[in-house]
Amino acid sequence: MFEEFERLNSYLEDTTDEENALLKRVNRETYLKETMPHMLSGHYQGRVLSMLSKLVQPTLALEIGTFTGYATICLAEGLAEGGVLHTIDINEEQQERVQGYFEQSDYASQIVYHIGDAAEVIPTIDGQFDLIFIDADKKRNLYYFQELIDRVKTGGLILIDNVLWKGKVFDDKPDSQTKQVIELNKTLASDNRVEKLILPIRDGLFVLRKK
Asked: What Pfam families does the annotation carry (predicted)?
């Protein structure tokens, strides 16, 4: 099954648009310098995020969990003229390098990079969001959704990553963290404020559209 996944992923990447030079660099340096490089969204998911952002053309977007900024740059590709993407991460150690990536991108003036606890940073950001991408502490995903759903415009998107949790959501005896992911998915599936579906790419991407 792993071999088939690798073949599928390779095929998907071969049939989508290429990464630009900056994204290739972020990808390469993340695998060279980070202890958990698999947290990177990567080429194919990056193109999915870019496409969804371009369809929405957000004026105000939010990302919770910057990591090394790969997904951030992909999401910024779809910003409306004058649009702003706020991205939040707790890790100060990566700040200088990641900020450098943003400054080298075509969206340097449109990306606002926050270091701190997202629960504390979010209330300082004014406005209604067109697009939100949640890819941080999995234990707080439901909290973020509940806190932000009323701040999303009608027709806006909330994207939540890692909702298939490496297939552990199918385990007969899930561990405590997997149970949290299962509960998140169950709660979102029954929420009538949003239209929803899970895209089974990489580790599962929940796509929710505000009614």
From this structure: Methyltransf_3
